[in-house]
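It is time I had a proper look at our fold encoding. Can you supply me with one protein entry, sequence and fold together? It will help me judge whether the discrete encoding reads sensibly. Leave the record below and I will have a look:
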Amino acid sequence: MSMSITSLPIQTISQENFPDPGWFSSLPNCEKGSIWKTTLFLENNGSVARDHLANERTFLAWLRTSLSFIGIGLATAQLFRLTNRDHTSIDDRFGQPLGITFIMLGIMFLFFGVTRYFLSQTTMIRGQFPATRGAIILAVILTTITLIGCLVIIIVVGRVSRT
């Protein structure tokens, strides 16, 4: 006897009947509704699940971007260091600051992603959506400035190396 999925009864699980998973419940001030709550249980009307999953994917994109910038920063610092063994030329003076700039940019992108994720989640629960532009504009401006700085450093180091 086979049952199709459409013939199964639909049950609603309330938040009160579902235990809080995770070790966060052992932390202080972790009563119901606190900031340490690891899971929110929302009624899936319309596009609630799809919207929240899209919010998670967006956060993961911010995370990937931040890790990419951090990786570029580490690689840049090491590349400048490896090309100059005596650490006295102009390469070494620009390599570490440039690497640190990319790492700081990566940390900033991670901060943007975490902030955006929780802001979007909170406002979606209220039935709204925050169309923020400030973080995106700031990220584009800082990335552009960093890349222009990178280009200038490459040109300067190239000219000094030829002389």
